[in-house]
């Protein structure tokens, strides 16, 4: 009975976790994950790093910073003028508008640049803003991320995988 109960708890926790997992994160190699402690750039250049950092930001209620940064990356790849204008409008509505719950924190200089750029939207309309949010995440959230259980537990698991669960 005890064994069944433990299995139930184990699978139940797995289900809950996978439902919460809106982002499917690729499993990083030990070397990759270890490099994240060296610099923020290493985190952002790794798909698994961005995913893990994003999940940490969610716990700090600042996930919109990463969402905005990723949306800007997508925008910069777009060449179709119609699609660019549509994406610019959507990004503005989601992350720049003061009416949005996902508004990112930008200074007035950058806001002025955006408002000027909005007259003629391009795939680089948000470049200054994207840089400012990158720097914000680097200075503010990144040091806490490296010190967080989100990161240290992951490192522990990668370095010494837990033994198979045996009740
Ligand atoms: C650009 O995108 C629009 C909307 O998706 C599409 O209708 C149009 O054909 C595209 N133009 C080019 C040049 O690909
Ligand atoms: C890292 O975490 C430990 C324990 O959680 C805490 O005592 C320490 O102040 C933290 N350091 C930084 C730089 O946040």
UniProtKB/TrEMBL annotation:
Keywords in alphabetical order: Signal
RGS domain: residues covered: 39-155
Signal sequence region: 1-20
InterPro entries documented for this protein: RGS, RGS_sf, RGS_subdomain_2
Organism superkingdom: Eukaryota
Protein name: RGS domain-containing protein
SMART domains registered for this protein in UniProt: RGS (SM00315)
One protein family per Pfam: RGS
Gene3D superfamilies reported in the protein's UniProt record: Regulator of G-protein Signalling 4, domain 2
């Amino acid at each position: 009975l005890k064994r069944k109960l433990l299995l139930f708890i184990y699978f139940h926790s797995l289900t809950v976790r996978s439902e919460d997992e809106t982002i499917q994160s690729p499993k990083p190699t030990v070397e990759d994950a270890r490099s994240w402690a060296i610099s923020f750039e290493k985190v952002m250049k790794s798909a698994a790093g961005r995913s893990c950092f994003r999940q940490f930001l969610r716990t700090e209620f600042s996930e919109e910073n990463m969402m905005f940064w990723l949306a800007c990356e997508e925008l910069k790849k777009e060449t179709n003028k119609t699609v660019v204008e549509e994406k610019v409008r959507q990004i503005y509505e989601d992350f720049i508008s003061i009416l949005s719950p996902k508004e990112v924190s930008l200074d007035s200089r950058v806001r002025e640049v955006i408002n000027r750029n909005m007259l003629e939207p391009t795939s680089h309309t948000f470049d200054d803003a994207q840089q400012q949010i990158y720097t914000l995440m680097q200075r503010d959230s990144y040091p806490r991320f490296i010190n967080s259980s989100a990161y240290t537990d992951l490192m522990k698991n990668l370095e010494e995988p837990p033994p198979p669960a045996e009740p």
